[in-house]
Specification:
The protein is globular. A hairpin with a 2-residue loop joins strand 2 and strand 3. The chain has a four-stranded antiparallel sheet, with helices on both faces. The protein is of the alpha+beta class and 151 residues long.
Length: 151
């Protein structure tokens, strides 16, 4: 049910819970949002070819990234409401599904993640979407945000 590293929902449990939230949003006519956070490595790739191909350096960077991920999830779990869903959906990606006013929760989340380097994107659920469409819209939004950030 939970990711062993972060304690957030596992991907299958998250997908099941999001499907329930989609059904509830349809019944109760409420807004549903997906906010994605993708952490980036603490160190930037300013290494020469030798260092860039150094497996030990990459291992250290990955460990630092995972430590950041655990810290972020911990802070988010403390700050989020009981009915908000949080999951580790990629190596360094966190997905949060929540209902209600997106501005209030987005401000709270951004306050937490300001100390981390990464990309943030959010999508609003459209009433005719299936689960896969909702999650795919989030993936596209985070990819677009990351692309825009690198330009």
């Amino acid at each position: 049910m939970h990711d062993a590293l972060t304690g957030a929902l596992s991907l299958p449990a998250f997908n099941e819970a999001v499907a329930r939230e989609i059904a509830r949003a349809g019944r109760d006519s409420m807004e549903l949002h997906l906010l994605l956070l993708n952490l980036q490595s603490i160190t930037k790739s300013d290494f020469n070819d030798f260092e860039d191909n150094n497996p030990r350096q990459k291992s250290i960077e990955q460990e630092q990234l995972l430590i950041q991920l655990v810290e972020m999830v911990h802070e988010l779990k403390i700050s989020l409401r009981d009915n908000d869903l949080i999951s580790r959906t990629g190596f360094s990606e966190i997905s949060i599904v929540f209902s209600g006013n997106p501005d209030y929760l987005k401000k709270r989340i951004l306050k937490i993640v300001k100390n981390f380097s990464g990309t943030v994107a959010m999508v609003k659920y459209q009433e005719d979407w299936e689960l896969a469409q909702f999650l795919t819209a989030g993936d596209l939004a985070i990819a677009k945000a990351a692309f825009t950030k690198t330009l």
